[in-house]
Amino acid sequence: MEDKSRSETEKIAALMTEGYLKERAKRGSRAKYEVILAKVPDVEPEVYDR
Question: Which of 11, 25, 40, 41 has the fewest CB atoms nearer than 10 Å to its CB?
Fold first, then answer.
């Protein structure tokens, strides 16, 4: 029984996350994203980040 509860809880959490992300995406702006992305330096990552 515990496994069923857990799986149901996880499914609900996933659906809520999906809804949250869709709502956030509606409020997003590609133009603002591009402006922020343009500020990121074009450099190679450190060795430990590769």
Answer: 41
